[in-house]
Amino acid sequence: MAFSWFKVASRGHVYDYVLLLGTLTLLTFTAYLQYQYNVFGTSYGLATFLPMVALFFIAYYFDHLGVLNLAIVNLAVWLGVSVTPKQLLIASNYNSETIIYTYLALGLFLLLLAFLTTRYQIKPHFKFSYQHYGVHTSFIALFSAYFYYDQKGIAFLWLIGVILLAFLLYKDALKHKSFYFLLLALLYGYFATSCLIELLFSVSDNAGGTFVLMLIYVPFSVGGFIYLLKQLSHKIKAV
């Protein structure tokens, strides 16, 4: 199979599944060697780094999105974190600055890779996978930092970071006509904006007035969000 920096036509579903099965077998065999014979000793980073390199090589050489997703997850394992959105939310282990900054660095790195794949046309169809994981990881890390520093005056800066990232994602989604990433940009941006407004309301000592304002804000903002989403959906389809 000749290597190409662009998308390569698949040889068939059987070929793709056999390749995916082979990579899963590689991971299983590596784990078995470590468990049974302690090949890597206490160098657990090496035990995850070598399979990660192999997975990225296989993904690019054989142009396989499934293997690429395994490689991205293995990259997260090597860093000691979970990268799947479901596990990010279930784990809820964000009470450490190290974990927060690790997630944020990983997310931004994946977003950078997503940008570079299209900017330099290096497997541009891999962009979605990088961006999918990068978006969720970055946004959740930013929100985690906001709640972690909630008692400090700089907490709102993390929300501004969310809004800026959401704006960049919004522009990119419109450019590439991606409703999925447009939806994510609006959702995360809406949550960040709502948190900022809640901060402004909480400045007042009038708890009753703040409660009434929130009761007014929530239904109107949700209605506005749905209306905006519908309008942007039509805009994407019209382009």
Structure, explained:
The chain has helices at 13-37, 44-61, 65-79, 85-91, 97-119, 127-148, 155-175, 179-202, 207-238. By secondary structure, it is mainly alpha-helical. It has a domain at 1-80.
Provide tags for this entry.
239 residues; mainly alpha
Q: Give the class from helix and strand content and strand pairing.
A: mainly alpha
How would you spell out the order of helices and strands? Answer: HHHHHHHHH
In total, how many beta strands? 0
Main sheet summary? none
Instruction: Bin the helical content.
Output: over 70%
Q: What percent strand?
A: under 5%
The separation of the N and C termini measures: 37 Å
Runs in which pLDDT lies below 50 for 5 or more consecutive residues are: none
Mean pLDDT rating: 88
Please state the overall shape, judged from the principal axes of the Cα atoms: flat
The rounded Rg comes to 21 Å
Q: Count of DSSP helices?
A: 9
Layout of secondary structure:
Layout: H1 13-37, H2 44-61, H3 65-79, H4 85-91, H5 97-119, H6 127-148, H7 155-175, H8 179-202, H9 207-238
Helix pairs in contact: 1-2, 2-3, 5-6, 6-7, 6-8, 7-8, 8-9
Can you describe this structure in just a few lines?
The protein contains nine helices and no strands.
